Amino acid sequence: MRHYLDFEKPIAELQRKLDAFKAHPEAASLGISWEEEMKVLENKIFEAERQLYSNLTSWQRVQLARHPKRPYSLDYLRTTFQEFEELHGDRLYSDDHAMVGGFARLGTERVMVIGTQKGRDTKENIFRNFGSAHPEGYRKALRLMKLAERFRLPVITLIDTAGAYPGVGAEERHIAEAIAVNLREMMTFEVPIIACVIGEGGSGGALGIGVADRVLILENAYYSVISPEGCAAILWKDRAAAPKAAEALKITATNLKAAGLVDEIIPEPLGGAHLDLDAISLTLRESLLRNVFQLKSLTGPERLASRYAKFRAFGHFTEPKSTA
Q: What is the spatial distance between Cα 280 and Cα 71, in angstroms, rounded to a whole number?
């Protein structure tokens, strides 16, 4: 059954009426045909969806990025990729279940794929730590990237996290250092690296596997230095101001593309990726393969120079000249 968000309630009501028509038991026996009414309702639903999803606010896109039915990294590893063989542990402390990764095949290409993984229910969320990785998660990711460099395999990262885990244990094991080392080391690998934000792209937790030659983002995903709620609590002293913060932060795919912070927006099915896993998986595969082939046409030094220039260009801005 489809899970509707608050802003989708008008569509949910229309769908409820349509389902009632379809399920009416006495219609056939009484010789009643509601075909015309059903067609009218179907057209209304389509038009309502088209209008709604083509004019989403920043906060509504954040809600879609967090949708409980949205595909996670392991979903794409079963559909977009083939022959995934998961590798475990950082060889230093433990295996972090919020970070998954291993060898896989993408079309005809052998790759190393790494992604943050959330849970579907309470039990799985506890197991996956709600998709927020510990230091050992980032060290595991780095170990796998070093393996990819050794075997000359492209690296693909799937980002979907509210942020790195901020708990005492993570601080004791140096979460900031683990992320910083990843940022440094990802600048040095000569193999192609592609990062794709598939849901939430939260702060350093996302950037810890986000230094790449190409940064892609799904249409309804977001990438931000802080969550809208966190920003609202700091600037407006009220987490209820999250919609205003989401707008001010410019964290949606179109804003990020306009600012040059992402390279490509991957379109989602109408209503979001959770409504058609097969379609979004195919679209993602085509985009990843196209970028892998383009990057493989460059030499290692060329990729390194381009990657360095790309990230050095972030954060530049101009101020209008004073008219005084």
A: 9
Same domain, 21 and 111: no
Residue 320 lies in a domain: no
State whether 16 and 95 are in the same domain: no
**Is the domain of 50 the same as that of 190?**
no
**Which pTM was predicted?**
0.90
Residue 311 phi/psi, 5-degree rounding, is -80, -30
Element (H, E) at 106: strand 99-106
Determine how many CB atoms are found less than 10 A away from the CB of residue 272: 24
Q: What share of the chain is helix, strand, coil (3-state, %, to 5)?
A: 50, 15, 35
- The pair of three-digit structure tokens given for residue 154, joined into one six-digit string: 């492209």
| 78 and 20 belong to one structural domain | no
Residue 1 lies in a domain: no
Does 71 lie in the same domain as 40? no
Contact 106, 285 (CB under 8 A): yes
pLDDT at 32 over 60: no
Burial class (CB in 10 A: 0-12, 13-18, 19+), 185: middle
Average pLDDT over residues 97-111: 96
